Amino acid sequence: MATQTRHEMHGRWPQAESVADIRRNLASVHGRIVAACQRAGRDPTSVRLLPVSKTKPEASIRLAYAAGCRLLGENKPQEAYRKWEATTDLGDLRWSVIGHLQTNKTKLVARFASEFQALDSLRVAEALERRLQVEGRSLDVFVQVNTSGEASKYGLPPNETTAFLRALPSFPALRVRGLMTLALLSAEAFRVRKCFVLLRELRDQLRQTAPTGIVLDELSMGMSGDYEIAIEEGATVVRVGQAIFGARDTPDSHYWPTASEEARNGQ
Q1: Per-residue pLDDT tens for 141-172?
Q2: Which stretches in the chain have pLDDT values below 70?
Q3: Could you give the CA distance from residue 266 to residue 89 in angstroms, rounded to a whole number?
Q4: What are phi and psi of 171, to 5 degrees?
Q5: What is the C-alpha separation between 101 and 57, in angstroms, rounded?
Q6: 187-199: b or e for each residue (b if 16 or more CB lie within 10 Å)?
Q7: Which domains does the chain have, with CATH numbers?
Q8: Total-model pTM
Q9: Residue-wise over 31-66: b if at least 16 C-beta within 10 A, else e?
Q10: N or C: which end of the chain has fewer CB within 10 A?
């Protein structure tokens, strides 16, 4: 039987209220990662789980840390920055910003993030480079590609990624690690899978023409409802939030807004 999505669970995952809850959820997700790797003939160590703590309070982050998490993903730079400031006593906790970034928020990301997974604009690349030079830091980045063709999603159109990558060596503080995408939020697994196949095939093509120093080893794709399909299609990073922390009260549209919504909200 073909692997199905788990999008029917969207918004219904039970809340993790203790270290034991998070450990149990992490073990469940890791078990599914191993099974997906076995189906695909892959080594499970080739897949990195990125727990996503967006909307969750500081208390949940401390539970996750106690459960062994050392890298957490956040969508909104300001929310991530606040959480970073509140948990600086957890010295080895690192942060990955995985949501759309505007140039006026690059100073926050340059200050604290160890990874940025949603680069899709040269203006943002330029602003990040300037801020990182000031901070004396470098940053791992993923180029976001819109594989679903939805106007509501950010990311470069696939046919613009070659030219984009050719411009990135001008920004030495940005260490390009790979590509990222958001699939369709659909219960039809074959439609979701197409998004992941497109990103993998695009990565394989881009590797042949990528500039020196541009590394495309990583494919960040798959979330709580579809990460098993993403792994079957080559994901090396899966971004899992609700299956670890529990359902979010805030709808996804708050975290994946359209450009027009951002303009109205002044974000």
Answers
A1: 999 999 999 998 999 999 999 999 999 999 99
A2: 1, 8, 10-11, 250-267
A3: 32
A4: -120, 80
A5: 21
A6: eebeebbbbbebb
A7: 7-247 (3.20.20.10)
A8: 0.92
A9: ebbbebbeebebeeeebebbbbbbbbeeebbbbbbe
A10: N
Q: Which of 118, 119, 55, 53 is nearest to 90 (CA)?
A: 53
- Distance (Å, whole) CA 81 – CA 235: 27
> Quick check: 118 and 142 in contact, CB under 8 A?
yes
- In terms of DSSP bridges, do strands 48-51 and 94-97 run parallel, antiparallel, or are they unpaired? unpaired
Asked if residues 240 and 7 have their Cβ atoms less than 8 Å apart, the reply is: no
Contacts of 42 (CB under 8 A, 6+ apart): 231
